[in-house]
Amino acid sequence: MEIRVTQAKTNRTRPKDSDLGFGQVFTDHMFVMDYSVDMGWHDPQIVPYADFSIPPSAMVFHYGQAIFEGLKAYKRQDKKICLFRARDNFERMNRSAKGMCIPQFDIDFVMDAMKQLIRLEEKWIPETIGTSLYIRPTIIATDPFLGVRASFTYKFFIILSSVGAYYAGGLNPVKIWVSKDHVRAVKGGVGEFKTAGNYAASLIASEKAKKEGYAQVLWLDGIERKYIEEVGAMNIFFLMDDELVTPNLTGSILPGITRYSIISLAKKWGVTISERKISIDEVFKAHEDGKLKEVFGSGTAAVVSPVGEIRYGDKVLSIGDGTPGETAMKFYTALTDIQYGKAEDKENWIEIID
Ligand SMILES: *Cc1c(COP(=O)(O)O)cnc(C)c1O
C-alpha cells in the first residue's frame, strides 16, 4: 500500500524542552488509515494534524470500541532517532484489537508508516535527556449506528507529542492510595487490553485518591480485593529482602513492556524475581517485619516511579527515607541509558530510524 503524503502548511516551532509537559504539544502531521469490510485497511495517509469529521452516531462515542498504544522515540546525543521495543507495542495492540473485536493490522506496514511520520516530524523530537517524542497509535470504531455490536468500519491513526522530562526535579517518590471501593478490571474482562473504557473506569477512584492527597491508585484484584494488580496506569514491583516481586499476569493486568524489560534485566543481573500473587496484607506484614525495602511502578511515560507511601484504609505505610530506592534507580538508569544510547544495547531493544 502506498502512503499518500500531504504536507502541512504551518510553520510552528517546538516549545523549549523545559516548557514541554506531557501530551500537550502535538506535531504538524499524523498518520491515518481506514478499514471497511470490503477493502480491509486502506487509504493510508500522512496528513496535516487536524480535527476529524466523524458523525455523532459513530459507535466509538457510545460503546467505547477503541484501543491505543503508548511508546516513545528518542533523539540521542549522536542525533540518531531510536525506538525502544516498538514492535512489542504493535504486537500488544493487535492483541488488544483481537480482544475488542477490531480487525488485525499488518505490523510491518504500520511500523514503516510510523517511522516515515517520525522522520517527517524530526524537528519535534526534543533532545535533552529525559525528553522524547511520545507516539500514540489509536483505533476507533466509526460505524454511524446505535446498537451494540462490533463496528464494520474503523479509523487507525498515529499522533505524536513532544514531551518533557518526566522527572525534571529528580525521581520523587509518590504517595499511593489503595482503592477499597473500586476495581479497575476483573479476570475475564478487558483489563489486559489497552482499551479506552479501562481508563474511564479508573477515574472515580483516582479522583478520590487525588482529593486525599495521593498521586496514584493502587488497584487490588476485582474478586477477592486482596491481591495487588497495578498502580495507576503502571505495573508495580516490591523489593522484599532480596526478592523482587511483581504480580503475575492474570488477565486483568496490562502486560507492560517496561515490566518485561525490568524482569529481563533482573534475571540477567541475578536478582531473584518472582511473578506471583502478592496480597496487600503480605506487603504490610513485610513492612512490619522490616523486609519491605522498595516499591516502584513501571511504565513507558515515567519508566520507573518510586513509591514512598501506601495508604490502605486507616493504615499508612511509609517506605524508604523520601529518596528513590537503590534498586528503582538502578533499573531507571539502566533502561534510560539504553534508550538514550549511553549504554550498549545488549538486549537488542533499540531500533534506529534512518
Ligand atoms: C500502558 C500501561 C502500563 C505500562 O505499559 P508499558 O508498556 O510499560 O508502557 C501498565 N498498566 C496500564 C493499565 C497501562 O495502560
Describe this structure in words.
The chain has 354 residues and is α+β, with helices and mostly antiparallel strands. It folds into two domains: 4-163, Aminotransferase class 4, branched-chain amino acid transferase, N-terminal domain (D-amino Acid Aminotransferase, Chain A, domain 1, 2-Layer Sandwich); 174-339, Alpha-Beta Barrel (D-amino Acid Aminotransferase, Chain A, domain 2). Helix content is 24%, strand content 30%. The chain is built from seven helices and 19 strands. It has helices spanning 59-63, 86-99, 107-120, 196-211, 257-269, 280-288, 326-339, and strands at residues 4-5, 25-26, 29-36, 40-48, 66-68, 71-75, 81-84, 132-141, 154-163, 174-178, 216-220, 228-231, 235-240, 243-246, 272-275, 292-299, 303-312, 315-318, 350-353. Strands 1, 2, 3, 4, 5, 6, 7, 8, 9 and 19 form a ten-stranded mixed β-sheet that branches. Strands 10, 11, 12, 13, 14, 15, 16, 17 and 18 form a nine-stranded mixed β-sheet that branches. Helix 2 packs across helix 3. It is globular. It starts with a strand and ends with a strand. The model has no long low-confidence stretch (mean pLDDT 96).
DSSP strand count: 19
CATH architecture of the largest domain: Alpha-Beta Barrel
Count of DSSP helices?
A: 7
- Low-confidence parts, pLDDT < 50 over ≥5 residues? none
Distance between the termini: 21 Å
Rg over CA atoms, rounded to whole Å, is: 21 Å
